[in-house]
Amino acid sequence: MLAGCARGASNGNGGDAPGGYQDAPGYMDAPGRDNTGDAKVYDDAKVYEDAKVYDDAKVYDDAKVYRDACVEVQMQLLVNPTFDQDSSGTGWTQQPIDETNYGPIITSDSSAVTPDSAPYQAWMGGVTGQEEGEQTVTDQLYQAVTVPASTTTLTVTGKYVVGTQETTTTQMNDTANLALTQTDGTPIETALALSNLNNTASGTYQPFSYTFSTNVSGQTVRLRFTSTNNATKNTNFFFDTFALTATYCP
Predict the structure, then answer these.
(1) Global model pTM greater than 0.85
(2) Max alpha carbon distance in the chain (Å)?
(3) Alpha carbon distance 97, 227 (integer Å)
(4) For residue 121, what are the β-bridge partners?
(5) How many angstroms separate the CA atoms of 114 and 119, rounded?
(6) Contact at 8 Å (CB) between 89 and 104?
(7) Which of 71, 81, 97, 134 has its CA 20 to 30 A from that of 235?
(8) Structure confidence at residue 58 as a pLDDT band (50, 70, 90)
């Protein structure tokens, strides 16, 4: 009779069977079934109120990303600013009073004044109107430059010497000036104005510096020297060692 019975089959749901339903502790005593009360997922986490993502981060006020991003740099804009790079006059346009008789404006002639930066300097004036059969004579020296966009400061520095035959204490028609102009020659702003009254008795170069107030950011302009002498008693104007420096955000 026992030969056809499987082990434990006669009491699979009985009270005494060790694997039965009534004594199995897995259902009634398992603590994991009702878990909503202890977890308190919403109340304890306080995700929104404790994080304070917007108030504490202060992303805009503390980062100052826009205000601190720009680091200004400086650039010297002139080609051959000391008149000595490469050949004489490289980068400059010269319009002398009389090149045939008196030579170019940029010269290595140091018979009157020793260049501040050898061997070349700009020698303007020094010719009277009478020598040319005119009431006045004028020469020019200029260079076109492109001012970087976002330029906040544009400054020209250089040195000059004035020597004159005039003896009057009144300004005669012997003048020189350094100016910023449009490419057609229209004046924008004067940086340096000289005359026979600025005679440099020692013949020693005098430094100067000028910061332009006109905003020419992103424009192509000229840095132009001009000298004019009247009919008699000439005045010589010498220039050397220049720089035109732009301060800007790259």
Answers:
(1) no
(2) 154
(3) 9
(4) 107
(5) 9
(6) yes
(7) 81
(8) low
Q: How many CA atoms lie within 13 A of 46 on its CB side?
A: 5
Q: pLDDT over 90 for what percent of the chain?
A: 67
Q: Which candidate, 160, 164, 239, 159, places its Cα nearest to that of 196? A: 164
| Residue pair 89/108 in contact by the 8 Å Cβ criterion | no
What pairing do the DSSP bridges indicate for beta strands 206-211 and 151-164?
A: antiparallel
Regarding predicted confidence, which is higher, 12 or 239? 239
The closest alpha carbon to 222, from 172, 192, 178, 175, belongs to 178
Q: Can you read off the two tokens belonging to residue 236?
A: 């010589």
SS3 5: coil
Upper half-sphere CA count for residue 22 (Cβ side, 13 Å): 7
Q: How confident is the model at residue 39 (pLDDT cuts 50, 70, 90)?
A: very low
Predicted local confidence at residue 171, as pLDDT: 75
CA neighbor of 175 nearest in space, from 234, 116, 133: 234
Q: What are phi and psi of 36, to 5 degrees?
A: -75, -30
- Distance CA(174)–CA(234), nearest Å, equals 7
Please name which of 203, 245, 244 lies closest in space to residue 72, comparing C-alpha atoms: 245
Residues forming a β-bridge with 180: 189, 223
- Cα distance between residue 144 and residue 158, in whole Å: 17
- Which H or E run contains 209? strand 206-211
Phi and psi (nearest 5°) for 237? -125, 125
Distance (Å) of CA 169 to CA 165, 198, 199, 202: 12, 10, 11, 18
Please report how many Cα atoms fall inside a 13 Å half-sphere around the Cα of residue 64, on the Cβ side: 4
- Residue 140, CB-side half-sphere exposure with 13 Å CA sphere: 11
